[in-house]
Design brief:
This protein has helices at 2-14, 24-34, 87-101, 131-145, 171-181, 185-193, 207-216, 239-246; strands at 40-45, 51-56, 61-65, 71-73, 77-80, 83-86, 109-111, 120-126, 148-154, 224-226, 232-234. The chain is an alpha+beta fold. The chain folds into two domains: 2-86, Nuclear Transport Factor 2, Chain: A (Roll); 104-246, Glutaredoxin, CATH 3.40.30. The strands form three sheets. Strands 7-9-8-10-11 form a five-stranded mixed β-sheet, sandwiched between helices. A four-stranded antiparallel β-sheet has the order 1-2-3-4, with helices on both faces. A two-stranded antiparallel sheet has the order 5-6. The longest helix has 15 residues, at 87-101. 29% of the residues are buried.
Length: 249
C-alpha cells in the first residue's frame, strides 16, 4: 500500500503544466541516454493525463511527465468502484502471456496431465539445485493426476557466466544445459532434482534464451510459476494448493 501513497504524492508534486512535452520517441532517446541500468524497451501514452508509461526490459515500468523531467518508479494503482487494481501488474500479466505464447514447445520439458482432459497448464522457471524447486517437482505427478500440465523452462539462479569475461559457465547453467541436451529430458531432470549427477552434455540447448525470457518476465528467483493468463506467483506449491489457485479443485 506504500506504493499507492507514493504514487498519489508524486502526482501532486511532479505534475507540471508549463513544461514542453516530448514525443514518445524523443522521451525514449532521452531515457536511453541516462543509463538507468536496465534498457528502456518502449514508451507509450499512460493511463494518467500528462504522463507516459515507460517499460524497461525486465518488465518493470516508470511513469514520467511528458517533458521527461520527473518520473515515478513503482506500481500504479487504479480505483474502480470499491476495488483497487494494480494497473502495472495487469500490464505485466499481458506481457508475460504474450511472451509465453511465443515460446516453442520444443524448448520446454513437459510433464503432461494424465487425465482425459487437461484442465490447466502452468509454465515453471526452474533450477536444478533450488530446494523449493525440488520439493515442487515431487508434487508434479500429483499435479498431473489433477489435470495440470507442467512445462518447465530453465532459469539458472546464479546466471549464465561465472565472470564478466564470459569465459566460464556457472554450475547452475551447466547442469540445466546437460538436462536439456539429454535424450530423455524428463528422466534426467527428475534424476538431477533428486540429487543424482547427470552426465555433462553440450548442445544448442536454448537455456540462455530461456533465462533471458525469464528476465523479460520479471522472474527474480525459482520456482516461478506462470499461469496461462500471465499471472505469476513465486515459490513452492503443493499439488492441492496449485489446483485451488487455478480454480480446478
Amino acid at each position: 500500500m506504500n506504493s499507492v501513497f507514493f504514487v498519489l504524492i508524486s502526482m501532486m508534486v511532479f505534475t507540471s503544466g508549463s513544461a514542453l512535452a516530448l514525443s514518445a520517441e524523443e522521451l525514449l532517446l532521452k531515457l536511453s541516454d541516462l543509463g538507468l541500468g536496465v534498457p528502456v524497451e518502449s514508451v507509450s501514452v499512460g493511463p494518467m493525463d500528462g504522463f507516459y508509461r515507460v517499460v524497461l526490459s525486465d518488465g518493470s515500468a516508470l511513469h514520467t511527465t511528458q517533458d521527461g523531467k520527473y518520473f515515478i518508479y513503482g506500481d500504479l494503482y487504479r480505483v474502480a468502484g470499491d476495488k483497487l487494481y494494480n494497473h502495472d501488474e495487469e500490464k505485466r500479466n499481458e506481457r508475460r502471456r504474450d511472451l509465453l505464447n511465443s515460446v516453442d514447445e520444443s524448448e520446454t520439458i513437459v510433464f503432461a496431465a494424465t487425465t482425459d482432459e487437461t484442465l490447466a497448464t502452468v509454465t515453471v522457471f526452474t533450477d536444478i539445485d533450488c530446494g523449493f524447486c525440488r520439493k515442487f517437482h515431487e508434487e508434479v505427478p500429483e499435479m498431473n493426476s489433477l489435470g495440470i500440465t507442467v512445462r518447465y523452462m530453465a532459469f539458472p539462479r546464479t546466471g549464465i557466466f561465472e565472470n564478466q569475461g564470459e569465459s566460464e559457465y556457472t554450475p547452475s547453467f551447466r547442469k540445466l544445459r546437460s538436462v536439456w541436451c539429454a535424450d530423455k529430458q524428463q528422466y534426467h531432470l527428475t534424476l538431477a532434482k533428486t540429487g543424482h549427477n547427470v552426465t555433462e552434455l553440450e548442445c544448442n540447448s536454448n537455456v540462455e534464451h530461456q533465462f533471458a525470457m525469464g528476465q523479460k518476465m520479471n522472474v527474480a528467483g525459482t520456482p516461478a510459476i506462470i499461469y496461462e493468463d500471465g499471472r505469476m506467483t513465486m515459490g513452492y506449491r503443493t499439488a492441492n494448493q496449485l489446483a485451488l489457485e487455478l480454480g480446478i479443485q
